[in-house]
Task: structure prediction
Amino acid sequence: MSEPIIQVRHLTKTFGEGETAVHALDDISLDVHPGEIYGIIGLSGAGKSTLVRCLNLLERPTSGSVMVDGSEMTRLSDKELRLARRNVTMIFQSFNLLMQRTCLKNVCFPMELSGVHKAKAEARARELLEIVGLADKADAYPAQLSGGQKQRVAIARALATDPKVLLCDEATSALDPTTTASILSLLKDLNQKLGVTVVVITHQMSVIEEICTRVAILDGGKIAEEGEVTDIFSNPKTDAARRLVYPGGVGENLLSGSRTIRVAFNGGTAYQPLIASLAIDCGVKVNILGADTHNIDGKAYGSMLLGLPEDENEAAKALSYIRSQPYVTAEEVESHG
Result:
């Protein structure tokens, strides 16, 4: 595997001093590899926005190191940092467009700051607007655009300096589900066509499952769990991960006194009607206590909690049948008495 394009080591960030100090980030270490779409997720207050702002030094870490494309960001002079930020651009939930400028001029803005000749900047801006599907909006103003269109202009502007890394801080949180899907599709397309590495900050697990390959789950300023999205969806190991993968509380409603199993779907090409098949093939009925399954790239991931029959023979028959199915694992879990 190639060298990470982002290396974060023992990163901490504290706001304030003494008894009123807030420890937003606590000993964060992670790697992001070139060309991947990496997710950072957590509930409100987990520290994810602080973390992404530390990646391009909009927020200066209290301690630790941030290496981006071979440069130790915390050691750069102000001039060097400005140059480095051309390689690490950012889009925001609130779009941050300049309202008095047309879409074309908004996209030109970072190139103006970099000293690009006006004609060359405008030609590149038109190319970028076409890439994001807004070639016909070059002369429109942000106030004339929908939320999704504003975010597309913001993405075009972020790409104006040909960055290696695109940071997305809750970039779809202000958008409706259909528009969110189109923006995520655009980010995936840009990642594949331009090779830009994308870091997605979000509180929505649906965003992670849609486009990310790996994810770090933040909880209370620490990384609770990190790994392949498919692994974490099929088998979350920490409470923080389970809260995000099962937002409806699956796993908290176990029946007292009954045998309960957790069935994990680990990437079967199609979701089979397991419970119906169990009843038909074995004549065994089970209680569905909770379910949360996801379709990631056409494969099934997620979990079900099932209450087994009280009869030991029936329970054993059900467990044996479930464990014989491809891409399915099953383990007994403790009930809360």
